[in-house]
Amino acid sequence: MKTLFLIFGLGLLAVLQVQGLPVVEEEEQEDLGTWYLKAVIFDKEIPGGRQGSVSVTPMAIKILDGGNLKIQFTFRVADQCHGVSVTLQETEEPGKYTAYGGKYVVQIIKSGVEGHYILYGVTDLHGHQIRTAKLVGTDPDFNQEALEDFENVTGARGLNTENIVIPKQRETCSPGGD
User: Fold this and answer.
1) Does 42 fall in a domain?
2) CA distances from 94 to 66, 89, 107, 137, 172 (A)
3) pTM value?
């Protein structure tokens, strides 16, 4: 269960042991609206094959002063909701961000399908490198063309496309509740 939480929590946008990390406070500048997680791929296998038990809520993304991004969402694993709020710090390289003092690096790649982006992340967790990618879009409906583009991009980066997980979409999930 802990591994599953880490794969999705970390993989869904830079969550490294959420409770122990400081929160970066910055003034919010521009609301980018609601985004939906369409697919996730990772280079580590989830023990027990429990990928189907994961559901996510829409993400709220805001651009902060200085070009940083604040992302908030919740996800549900095995009937427990987990809340996530992370600030991605803009780097000098366009489209590349870091979190938690550079421990997590994410590159934002524009998909070939309008309204979709791929978030490709690399982190070091207890001496093990974990690579993840997420397909996100502005429309809650599934898009086969976007999924095929995601498979092409992630496959070219050496990720096994057989590990793609398509989480269930939920409208609400309250951490500590339902």
Assistant:
1) yes
2) 13, 12, 9, 20, 33
3) 0.77
